Every structure is written in structure tokens, then in C-alpha cells.
Amino acid sequence: MEKKKLLNILSIITFITLIFSSCYKKDDTSKHSKTNLMLGTVCTITTYDGKNPEKAIDKAFDRIREIEDKMSINKEGTEVDEINAKAGEEFVKVSDDTFDVIKRGVFYSKASNGKFDISIGPIVKLWNIGTDYARVPSDNEIKEKLPLVDYKDIILDEDGKRVKLNKKGMVIDLGAIAKGYAADEVKKVLTDNGVKHALINLGGNVYALGSNVNGEPWKIGVQNPFDTRGAYFASVKVKDQTVVTSGIYERYVEKDGKKYHHILDTKTGYPVENSLASVTIVADKSIDADGLSTSVFAMGLDEGKKFVENTPGVDAIFVTKNKEVYITSGLKDSFSIVDNSFKLK
Length: 345
Prior knowledge:
Blueprint: H1 3-21, E1 32-38, E2 41-47, H2 53-71, H3 79-85, E3 92-93, H4 96-111, H5 121-127, H6 139-145, E4 154-157, E5 162-165, H7 178-192, E6 198-202, E7 205-209, E8 218-223, E9 232-238, E10 241-247, E11 252-255, E12 258-261, E13 276-283, H8 286-299, H9 301-309, E14 314-320, E15 324-327, E16 335-337, E17 343-344
Parallel strand pairs: 15-17
Antiparallel strand pairs: 1-2, 2-6, 3-5, 4-5, 6-7, 7-10, 8-9, 9-16, 10-13, 11-12, 13-14, 14-15
Helix pairs in contact: 2-7, 4-8, 7-8, 8-9
């Protein structure tokens, strides 16, 4: 996504963050916030304590930059770029960061029976949704690339921290999971630097560190899938948890009056078609919420809800295209709808 588009959503995200982060009695002298364009999106870190919060925030952004420089497929010379360039040829030794994210990506690819698959890169590049080159590819183009999408062809050498793609032309894309990993790492950096109360917002991947300064849970807005990023239809109370949404609102390309969203079906190569408009995951770790939000969206309402109910420490909010809302059992006391056009079922 080009920089100009990112700047257009910057004020929206900042405004929504302030709504949910400023509802406490203490003055704002302890509050520090900084925003950068990283990971292809707008990233905001806001702290409410700590001995040197500005330094802590700078260290956190340095950590995000380090992760981006290793895992982006939109930069030359990253570790993921090298893995993709040597697909079908040889193993590539990578850092612990990259290896751990790929390993977790393979885990969720397997857990979802391939409905989430980090080897979706060849199809993603055909569509280019979210970039200036977005288009609707032909059936033949998609059929040609689909055989390259198979997480089982990602070979991991645990001892040597090496990765190999079995087929030439394969492309790993960590875009659906790397932001979650980065959010978890930011949490570690802030905690190591004495911060106990903070909001981390990496393009909508929100991590609420600790409680708010009054000792109460944070109140986080749940994305309205029928509006632009930053608009919310409900709120959820969390403490030391992450809130991540995947849906049809975020990125899409339009042709002949039809919108094609960015969550692609790994079996057809086209956007996932089901009754859902969005899935929001609430979990302890952002990397898990990131991977699960895409996985569960692709599963659909019934299968996805059952999957989440059977996954310890994870809850979900499902929104259908007709604005029906379904939540898992762990959220019954912490979830509230603020837009009456949505109906809790």
C-alpha cells in the first residue's frame, strides 16, 4: 500500500486509539505516544508509565524495523526474499525470528487443514490487493500458480535453523502472521523497559499491555467490517491480551462493480466466499491471534466457532454479512455492542 494511503488512515487509527486509552482519572503527563509507517501499515505505540517511556518506545520501533528487515517480501535482501529466490534449489539459513514465525505459520497451516497457508505468496502476487498494481487475474493465471501453494512443501531444519521450499516458484508470504509476532516482541521490549500499561496498535493488531492505569481492563473497539479501518461497532474488555480482526473491509480490488477482498481461498485462488464479513480473535499472544483470524475466517462461521471453542485461551467474535454477531463463550461478560444495527445472536 502506498504511503499516501497509509497517511489517510493515520488520523482515524490515532483517534480510535485515544477513545479507548484516555478513559482514566490520572492526568496525561505519564502518557507518551509515537506513530510510524512500518510493516506496510500505520503502527502506534502508546505508554502510560515507565522510567524512560520515550526510549522504550524507540527501542520497540527498532525491534519492529528489525523484524520487517528480515521478513518482508516487499524489500530486497530480506531473509524471506532469499528463501523465495532459492525455492526449489537449496536451504537458506535464517535468524531465530524468521524461523520461529515460519514454523508457527506452518503450524497454523496444518491446524486449519491448509485454509491458512503461508505459501499463498504466488496467488497474492497475482492479485496484488492493497498495492497500486491490484487487479483481477485470469482463471488460467490462477490455475497455473495454485500447484505452488502447499505448506507441506516448506521444509524446516530445526537444528540448523534453515528453510527450503521444495518447488521452484514457491513464495512464502508472512503478511498474515508477522504483525502478530512483532506486537508480541514490542510487548517484551516495553516490559523489559519497565512499562506496565500500554496500547500497541500495529495496523489494527492491538495488544493491551497490563490493565489501564486505574487497574481496570482496557476497552478496545472491535472493527466494523462495513466501514473503514478505525470504525468500530462493539467493544471488548481485555487485560494482557491482543485483539486482531480479519475481514472484507480492509483491502480489496473492484472490477465491473464487484469487490474482491484480500483473504484468498488456498484451494481456488479466489477470495474466500462464505457468510462472514469479519472475525475478531481475542488471545494472549498476537502471533496466534493473527494466524487464527485468517484461518477461522476461511473456515466459516460453524466450523470456525467450533474450532475456537476447542482452542484453549482463545475467543472470537464473528460478524456475518447481514450484521449478525456470534461470540464464543469466554466473551459473554466482556463484549458489548455499541451500534444497534448489529444484532447479537
